[in-house]
Amino acid sequence: xxxxxxxxxxxxxxxxxxxxxxxxxxxxxxxxxxxxxxxxxxxxxxxxxxxxxxxxxxxxxxxxxxxxxxxxxxxxxxxxxxxxxxxxxxxxxxxxxxxxxxxxxxxxxxxxxxxxxxxxxxxxxxxxxxxxxxxxxxxxxxxxxxxxxxxxxxxxxxxxxxxxxxxxxx
Length: 170
Prior knowledge:
The structure is a single chain. It is built from nine helices and three strands; from the N terminus they run βααββααααααα. It has 170 residues and is mostly helical. Strands 1-3-2 form a three-stranded antiparallel sheet. Strand 2 and strand 3 form a beta hairpin. The radius of gyration is 17 Å and the shape is globular. It starts with a strand and ends in an 8-residue tail after the last helix.
């Protein structure tokens, strides 16, 4: 039975996406999961069904576009008030590093900390870049709470209407 249950990291490897994307799929109800102790587990059959669906690449691209649009808005706030935005991100990093002291998330959080130490321009480039590394950074973003909820929801609605999956590289 346990070989039929996967961790989010194992599911991400099978799907060819980030662990955070798997967590997001579970949170939205797109991928069923179980809680074993304090850990999320996924049935191999559910993950394989999603992998065969043929829509995972399009869903992943749409998620990347939505994240990019949200982080472009964060970049706008960073341009207007770098001290406040970077202070918020630093507080979030402090909290996130307590929750994720090791593993892949910890490595991405350490990368954000280094970018913040390099200053607003380095952060701005990471927030708005269209690269695999930037996609992963945004999946582990310390910028929660920078955008007001109303603005965040408006951006999500706008990406549903206007951002085609072809808007990012394949």
